[in-house]
Amino acid sequence: LVEDIPLTDSAIISELTHLGCMQVPVALAQFKIETGHFSSHICKDNKNIAGIRTSRSKLVIGMKNDHCAYATYRDCLRDYVANTEQIPNKYQPSLR
């Protein structure tokens, strides 16, 4: 049995912080927008709370619904934090 995190703000914030995410509030807001507050079929079927469509990570177990699929929500968060520079973030304000 693979350990996963519950889809709660506190669990996601804790995991993002543990993983060293630099923009935890921005990431959490993005996840809520992408998933309709964690209710979308991509969130549930793919364990993809970040809306990731492309990734070369070994954490990706396949593709479903034109999005990356993960074994756990924790794996999705690991991929998100490890590849933040490669994953387009339309929610991050421009610093230009």
Overall description:
The protein has 96 residues and is mainly alpha-helical. The chain has helices spanning 9-19, 24-35, 41-46, 73-82, and strands at residues 60-64, 67-70. It has a two-stranded antiparallel sheet. It starts with 8 loop residues before the first helix and ends in a 14-residue tail after the last helix.
Keywords summarizing the entry:
single chain, 96 residues, mainly alpha, 4 helices
Give the low-pLDDT segments: none
Average of per-residue pLDDT values: 89
The radius of gyration computed from the alpha-carbon positions, rounded to a whole number of angstroms, is 12 Å
Strand order of the largest sheet: 1-2
Strand/helix succession:
HHHEEH
**Which structural class is indicated by helix and strand composition?**
mainly alpha
The dominant shape is globular
> What proportion of the residues is helical, as a percent range?
40-55%
Short description:
The chain is mainly α. Helix content is 41%, strand content 9%.
Describe how the helices and strands are arranged.
Elements: H1 9-19, H2 24-35, H3 41-46, E1 60-64, E2 67-70, H4 73-82
Antiparallel strand pairs: 1-2
Helix pairs in contact: 1-2, 1-4
